[in-house]
Structure of ExeM/NucH family extracellular endonuclease:
Amino acid sequence: MTTSGDRRRWWLGAGLIGLVLALSSAGVQARPACGATGATPLTAILGLKGEALPAGREVEVQALVSGRFPGDSGLNGFYLVSESSPAGIFVYAPDLATAETPDRQTRLRIRAHTGRYRGRIQLERVVAMSRCGVGTVDPVRLEPGDPTTYARLRDRPVRIDGSLSIAEVYNLGRYGSLRLARGGRPFHPNNGVEGGERLDLLLDDGSYRRDPRPVPHTRDGIRRAGDRVERVTGILTRAFGRWRIHPTEPPSFQARNPRPAAPPRGPGLRLVQLNLQNYFTDRRGRGAPTERAFERQRERLRGLVQALDPDLLALHEVENNAATVDNLVNLLNASTPPADDYRAAVDGRGDAVIRSVVLYRPDRLSRRTADRQAHPAHPRQPIVVRFRTPEGAEFRVAAAHFKSRGGCPQRGDVDRGEGCWADRRQAQSRAMIDWLAGRPASDTPLLVLADLNAYPAERAVGAWTTAGYHDLLARHVTPLDRYTYNYRGRAGYLDHALANRGMLARIAAVRVWPINADESAHLAREGHGVWRLSDHDPIIIDLHPPTS
């Protein structure tokens, strides 16, 4: 589908601007005669029974309008469907005023030229048209999931009976589209959870413009992955490499996954892990591009910490310099009583661009020892801290952020089903397990809070469970809630809380607060409160209070 800017420039270059309006309303050229012989079948234009007509051929067509999407806020045109054969086509008419764009179910006789856009056959450069009464547009029932069916029904009106899940909302604010699923929320196959079927199908908004406002398909600006949609009726088409439906009737949504309140905390210690998605004070770095955006990031993070009230934070993707860590600590301490102030547990830095940090409240925990592991397997150095509670109980917390799944090499550690660099992540796990086993007081309760960039059924995580560590999300979180991340419509957890046997008895509750993965990416720039302040969800671990 063309963009309005590209096609309008083409139209001007051809010297035909305004011709549609002039001919259709003033009759400069004879209007097509309704019902006259000589109309070209859509099947012939599309090549459904032979070779498609070449671009630039003037044709006359009589068909029903199956969907109208006028103007720059739409698709700059409308769809036609044949009354005599299973065929549909898009008519590109950017200079046809909204009021003059024919309504759905209008029988239309139109003279236009064949054209191509991104390989898709369409009609364009409208010469004249006549309205020839009305007809009935009956959408074809579509059973989603079969691409061969999609191809057969391309550019035709369809309907989907029954309920579909919203698998992903990432591009909702950018392009107005939602990814659909059947049978519930889809999970990554390595997450160990049976979920729904992710479909190669988007629910679009009848437009290809960027940043549509108000954001479509929302109520009060909210639509989350895990919600449901009923009675989808619209035009099935393929554009920009994806199958999509442009609604001709408003979809009916059910908010099955409303925004949840912060988990209430118990009387014991609370520990929280979160990937911050690049907390940078350097504006030339990977974080917020402007000071205003950075202040917004800071305020939203402050709101998260105030809502959860943790005694310890394991945070990843913090710019690797002392000034940024100080900035982060000062942010969290600016609005808290001195008794609740945070302190960084580990000084010094490695060579990576980003780092993991552990922040703690000295009034609730005293730091005994702290260390970093320098090992060639690690792009970012893991850290471990030994703490003591006022009651004298000791435990250790390790934090790590493993090699990402992207940036595949040309050969070697390529994606074989566990993302790129799976061999290296497995080597990182083994190195870290050996390192932690050799630390002083190796029998001390130990909690590993890490973004391993690996799903639970992958080798990098399996190394930990083989070594005797316990996956706390698998033990405490129900299967359909076991996710902290959503990648292309598949949920799963790359973020982990792993405990050795000595730590298990201290765990009171483990929860994920789904504030990010289920939200549209545009909220990172425009949202308020804690919603989509990162692309990962926080993991919250509450410990039992000490027994007297």
